[in-house]
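Supplementary Data S3. Sequence and structure tokens for construct A.
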Amino acid sequence: MINNKDMEFAEYIPKQDIKNLVIMLHGYGADKNDLIGLASHLGKDLPNTAFISPDAIQPCEIGFGRQWFSIGSADENETYDKLENASLYINEFIKQQLKRFNLSPDKVALVGFSQGTMLSLHIAPRQNKQFACVVGFSGILVGCDVLAEKCKTKPPICLIHGDADEIVDVKFTKLARDCLTENNFVVEDLICSGLGHSINHDGLSFATKFLQKHLIK
């Protein structure tokens, strides 16, 4: 078993009874505090929802922030293996949080940015019990060729990307959308005009409505 007792995280917990859980997975070079700032905005439209943002498992190789895995290689097979390793930690972390709030997997949404999106898209379809949904900003789906073989569940997925992204080309969201759709996932996507490697108001609003639809029941 992976020991996550020392895994640090930021959280935004409303005072109401917790009925839903959003796990926020940050990008390369960021940390637990990066996405949690969105929680107070999302929380206005997602009542009874706890937001938890864990630190990635490694210090980032660029000298600041953290990383879920090294990006030293562009080899897809190597990246897939790295995602598999990082998934062990996140899966255990999610189990701990479900136990903490006494929730079932269908009350969980994953929200990722960049490398965190890669991890979210890897983890969610491989669950034995389906998550409520996934929201991925500016990410990549790795392992499309094995998705049909590996996926156990098919949660609704929302993909959001800026068409001026200088870090992760917007083509990767289009490829992810096509792959997921071909494998019978329900996918909604938004391409934000003029947006770089970031999240803007339009993207956040789109994500909020998607989360409301699939998480709040």
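Construct B, processed identically:
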Amino acid sequence: MALKATIFKCDLQIADMDRHYYQNHLLTIARHPSETDERMMIRVLVFALYASEQLSFTKGLSSDDEPDLWQKSLTDEIEIWIDLGQPDEKRIRKACGRAKQAVLINYGGKTSDSWWQQNQKILQRFDNLSVLDLPETQSKELAELADRNMQLSVTIQDGHSLVSSDAGNVDIHLEKRK
């Protein structure tokens, strides 16, 4: 018998002073059985960083044809394709070919550094790709905020993000690799 996804609810309040975006989102997040709290919370963080009315979670780990998050236009064109982790070059090429903008959030400590060293030259040819690195200490702290019913507040200013909940605060600074 296959394991089912665990459902998380999140009341996400976003104050993004860099983009002048102030909104409250009620999110229902399906965490795949193989997904960790760390990865799920990174998805929530990324939602806050790129939030818009059109941004949505996808099937994620359950599908090879979809990113973790995407923003589509009203004509169903993919405006932003967002993946997490260390995908292979073929997947990145697909993302860059299908979307106006592709974003990769790289995390995982030493494995993310090794992946970047191996793929840095290949990734330079994709003009519409951004690669951001989330330090391991910050992703681990973010995972500690995970709860089945979360109330999170994310404040974004000058490229820094502060994620707050009753469980604590995490200061996030993504390093721009590309």
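Residues 6-176 form a domain with the Restriction endonuclease-like alpha-beta roll fold fold (CATH 3.10.640.10). The longest helix spans residues 110-123.
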